[in-house]
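Q: How would the structure tokens look for this protein?
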Amino acid sequence: MIAKLDYLNYMHSLKGSIFKILPLYEEGVSTLPDHINSVIFEVHNVKEITPEYDGAWIVQTHAILNGLLKECIKEDNKPFIKSKVFGTIDTIEKQIQKLEQE
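A: Here is the predicted structure in token form.
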């Protein structure tokens, strides 16, 4: 079992990894799909080792990351990418706040 504080620290780190998608997309960095795949891999595996903290937020995050993997190869898709990145960060932040109140 992972301590709640460690899990909260992970979630803050995850927000940073997700935010990084936006500048990588804006700059046309070729490793963007690799970065997204890395975050997907991480989220998938964290879900398996932290079932006590599992919730709808992690399913939503996983699904959006999978979608971003497909959308990031399109040009002129910044508004959509930005919306999904900030929406996902907001979802994670709400989960952080919920856990901090427990």
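The chain is about 80% helix and 0% strand.

Helices lie at 4-19, 21-26, 32-49, 56-71, 78-101.

Upvote if useful.
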